[in-house]
């Protein structure tokens, strides 16, 4: 298909598929996004991933396929949050061994999550848990064991993993705006549970009360 320049007037009018949702405009999307409260104690790079997911929600009004990218970006934010929590909980000192280089590395201070998981990707393994490679499935299992993941949230974490795997294998799924917004809100709740504050707990209670009300739904 030949690509053509979209005239500015047509571009700002939004994707034609948004006509299926007459009450949804950029103001309504932004109001919903502003109401989503990410924990203040979430790591900075997690905050950045969530910010990008919110920007994709707004961009989806103009390019409909971007709503599905919101889901992908939200899963990335959740995975990065889990990696940070793992780095914070890892006992010190910890010894890592590299089979490729036949070397050992002793961590005596808290490791940066990005650097730690780069080591896992390069084949380094913990001496006390040489099966742990740092993948999302293993992170979810680990977080469940230490009760960093709530039992009620476990299904959502597993859904995140499955969605990420589908996208990684070339899925071209398209989701409507309500699904994208609802998924992002749930992702924020999952992240908040890893880095809770009194305010994030109040936000969770408010959201769950809305879900349980007769008029509430999860998007």
Question: Which characteristics define this entry?
Answer:
about 220 residues, mainly alpha, three-stranded antiparallel beta sheet, globular
Quick structural overview:
The protein is built from nine helices and three strands, in the order ααααββαβαααα.
Summarize the structure in words.
- The mean pLDDT is 92.
- With 219 residues, the chain is mostly helical.
- Helix 3 (44-60) runs antiparallel to helix 8, helix 4 packs across helix 5 (113-121) and helix 4 (66-89) packs parallel to helix 8 (177-194).
- The protein is globular, with a radius of gyration of 20 Å.
- The chain has one domain (8-212).
- A 3-stranded antiparallel beta sheet has the order 2-1-3.
- The chain contains 9 helices and 3 strands, in the order H-H-H-H-E-E-H-E-H-H-H-H.
Q: In angstroms, what is the radius of gyration?
A: 20 Å
The chain-level structural class is mainly alpha
Mean pLDDT, to the nearest integer, reads 92
Number of domains: 1
User: Helix fraction?
Assistant: 55-70%
In order across it, which strands form the biggest sheet? Answer: 2-1-3
How much beta, percentage-wise?
A: 5-15%
Q: Assembly type of the shown chains?
A: single chain
How is the main sheet built?
A: 3 strands, antiparallel
Kindly state the number of beta strands. 3
Count of alpha/pi helices? 9
| N-C termini distance | 33 Å
What string gives the helices and strands in order? HHHHEEHEHHHH
Gross morphology: globular
């Amino acid at each position: 298909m030949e690509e053509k320049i979209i005239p500015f007037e047509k571009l700002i009018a939004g994707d034609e598929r948004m006509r299926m949702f007459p009450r949804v405009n950029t103001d309504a999307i932004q109001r919903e996004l502003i109401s989503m409260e990410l924990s203040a104690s979430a790591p900075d790079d997690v905050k950045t991933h969530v910010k990008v997911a919110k920007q994709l929600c707004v961009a989806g009004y103009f390019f409909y396929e971007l709503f599905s990218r919101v889901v992908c970006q939200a899963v990335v934010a959740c995975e990065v949050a889990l990696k940070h929590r793992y780095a914070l909980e890892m006992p010190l000192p910890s010894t890592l061994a590299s089979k490729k280089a036949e070397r050992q590395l002793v961590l005596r201070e808290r490791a940066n999550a990005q650097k730690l998981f780069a080591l896992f990707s390069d084949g380094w393994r913990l001496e006390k848990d040489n099966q742990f490679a740092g993948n999302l499935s293993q992170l979810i299992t680990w977080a469940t064991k230490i009760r960093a993941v709530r039992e009620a949230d476990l299904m959502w974490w597993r859904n995140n993993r499955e969605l990420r795997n589908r996208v990684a294998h070339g899925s071209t799924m398209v989701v409507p705006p309500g699904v994208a917004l609802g998924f992002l809100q749930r992702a924020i709740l999952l992240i908040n549970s890893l880095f809770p504050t009194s305010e994030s707990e109040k936000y969770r209670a408010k959201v769950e009360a809305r879900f349980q009300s007769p008029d509430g739904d999860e998007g």
